[in-house]
């Protein structure tokens, strides 16, 4: 599909689009949406957006950048500090993870002028913007790769080609075949044949990638989410755990970070590194600002589903120790529950709304910079295949209202109640629950930046941790179960319930009374 703009100038067209649908279904959840003159304390929460599914301003059924701009007031009211945009570069695929022009904007999403306008409006609201940077591989339709098929081309060495002794049956690091056929030649394509891997042993590739990153920083972006960060050199299953491969990956990303910091010293760079333990993730701190915490995501969902803390306390302690040793400080984790590659949280929890609330409560009371996948705050569902994880955001009770993306059908389970319009009108909705939790992080700095000390309570249904920073000291307690809990805290320094998710939480004489599925912040 091709984006068709009206003949209005860009600024006028954006104004008309915002007037036409920007207010529908996105009324502020609390207070005025007018930008503040000085930055308020941020929540530190990032929000992942698939532009194609977010909001459509020109009626072609495809979400666009103007749609992101029109919904910034919704995001501001939700309380997030930043947004991560999945790929916005030109691409032959619906998802965009095979780029054909690293300096361009997908024409279905809009123009560079639209993107600059989005950045300006986001920054007015103290919302940062990072973009997906997909530089492990290009599209096989990229001009570089088309040229590279000719061995005489200077671009030939930008990709990895099999030699006479190459094992063409080798398994890629992500499973499946690694080598792909191109006539009589074979090239490396870890993910698919449509995504040929770039060769980072070629100096020209490194120079170009530094140039690309610096270009987008100069446009005003605040950083990057790095797709497939570990696969720059980790190409084959046989390399799993190879320290020499890890060292080469870290060396490149250190070079990249230094190049970005020369343009913007406070650049935020978070990497997709799919490892199964904190000790394997810790080395990436330094080369990167943060990495997504995949093992913690699994544990948080397990704890919510089973209504048992399980190994959560031990994992939090191990994670904090490993990351603090690597980075020299606390509050650097990037926890999350799900993303565009995983079954949605509500589906993983079999549609249980109470389990969903507790998973959110645990995530959003952990230090660091949590990431929320769009629609998670509504309880959107979706299971693989991948397009069903990336369905349209529901703004209105009816799916055919102008402004809704319609490039694919919504998940059948997501009825009218799973919409912004419906949940804004319900004070007990999941949306309001997320908003409350995110705003807690603005109020209590230790929830964002505190050193964490898991607390072992003699009750398997309780998850608890202490958080301390220079200005606040709190104890977080979650009752994960369907039963009220009487929690003996003993002679504790925490004597007041500062924040609570439900009425009926009391603290008297060292005993905490908690209703089912509740969270308390004690001070």
UniProtKB/TrEMBL annotation:
GO terms for molecular function: hydrolase activity. Keywords: Carbohydrate metabolism, Glycosidase, Hydrolase, Signal. Residues 1-30 form the signal peptide. InterPro entries: Alpha_amylase, GH, GH13_cat_dom, O16G_dom_2, SusG-like_C, TAT_signal. SUPFAM superfamilies: (Trans)glycosidases, Glycosyl hydrolase domain. Its EC number is 3.2.1.1. Residues 48-441 form the Glycosyl hydrolase family 13 catalytic domain. It is an enzyme of class 3 (hydrolase). The keyword Calcium does not apply. It catalyses: Endohydrolysis of (1->4)-alpha-D-glucosidic linkages in polysaccharides containing three or more (1->4)-alpha-linked D-glucose units. Belongs to the glycosyl hydrolase 13 family. This is Alpha-amylase. It comes from Rhodanobacter umsongensis.
């Amino acid at each position: 599909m091709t984006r068709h703009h009206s003949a209005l100038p860009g600024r006028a067209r954006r104004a008309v689009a915002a007037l036409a649908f920007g207010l529908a279904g996105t009324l502020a959840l609390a207070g005025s949406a007018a930008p503040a003159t000085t930055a308020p304390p941020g929540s530190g929460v990032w929000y992942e957006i698939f532009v194609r599914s977010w909001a459509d301003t020109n009626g072609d059924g495809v979400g666009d950048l103007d749609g992101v701009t029109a919904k910034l007031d919704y995001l501001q009211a939700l309380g997030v500090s930043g947004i991560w945009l999945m790929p916005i570069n030109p691409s032959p695929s619906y998802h965009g993870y095979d780029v054909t022009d690293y300096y361009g904007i997908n024409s279905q999403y809009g123009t560079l002028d639209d993107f600059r306008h989005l950045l300006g409006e986001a920054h007015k609201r103290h919302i940062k913007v990072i973009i997906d940077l997909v530089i492990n591989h290009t599209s096989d339709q990229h001009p570089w790769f088309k040229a590279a098929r000719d061995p005489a081309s200077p671009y030939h060495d930008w990709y990895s080609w099999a030699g006479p002794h190459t094992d063409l049956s080798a398994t890629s690091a992500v499973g499946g075949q690694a080598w792909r056929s191109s006539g009589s030649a074979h090239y490396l394509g870890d993910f698919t044949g449509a995504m040929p891997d770039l060769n980072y042993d070629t100096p020209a590739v490194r120079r170009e990638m530094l140039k690309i990153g610096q270009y987008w920083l100069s446009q005003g972006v605040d950083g990057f989410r790095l797709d497939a960060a570990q696969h720059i050199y980790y190409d084959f299953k046989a390399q799993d755990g190879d320290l020499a491969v890890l060292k080469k990956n870290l060396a490149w990303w250190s070079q990249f970070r230094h190049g970005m910091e020369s343009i913007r010293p406070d650049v935020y760079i978070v990497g997709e590194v799919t490892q199964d333990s904190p000790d394997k993730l810790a080395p990436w701190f330094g080369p990167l600002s943060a990495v997504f915490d995949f093992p913690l995501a699994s544990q948080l969902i397990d704890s919510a589903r089973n209504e048992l803390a399980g190994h959560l306390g031990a994992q939090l302690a191990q994670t904090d120790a490993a990351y603090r040793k690597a980075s020299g400080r606390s509050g650097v984790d990037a926890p999350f529950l799900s993303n565009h590659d995983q079954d949605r949280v509500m589906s993983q929890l079999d549609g249980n709304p109470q389990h969903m609330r507790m998973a959110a409560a645990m995530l959003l009371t952990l230090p660091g910079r949590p990431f929320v996948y769009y629609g998670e705050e509504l309880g959107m569902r979706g299971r693989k295949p991948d397009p069903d994880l990336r369905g349209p955001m529901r703004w209105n009770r009816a799916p055919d209202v102008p402004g809704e993306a319609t490039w694919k059908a919504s998940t059948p389970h997501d009825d009218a109640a799973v919409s912004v319009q419906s949940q804004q009108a319900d004070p007990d909705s999941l949306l309001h629950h997320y908003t409350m939790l995110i705003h807690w992080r603005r109020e209590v700095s230790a929830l964002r930046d505190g050193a964490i000390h898991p607390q072992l309570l003699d009750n398997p249904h309780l998850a608890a941790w202490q958080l301390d920073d220079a200005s606040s000291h709190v104890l977080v307690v979650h009752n994960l179960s369907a039963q009220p809990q009487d929690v003996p805290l003993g002679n504790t320094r925490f004597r007041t319930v500062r924040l609570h998710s439900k009425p009926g939480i009391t603290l008297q004489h060292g005993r905490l009374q908690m209703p089912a599925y509740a969270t308390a912040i004690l001070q």
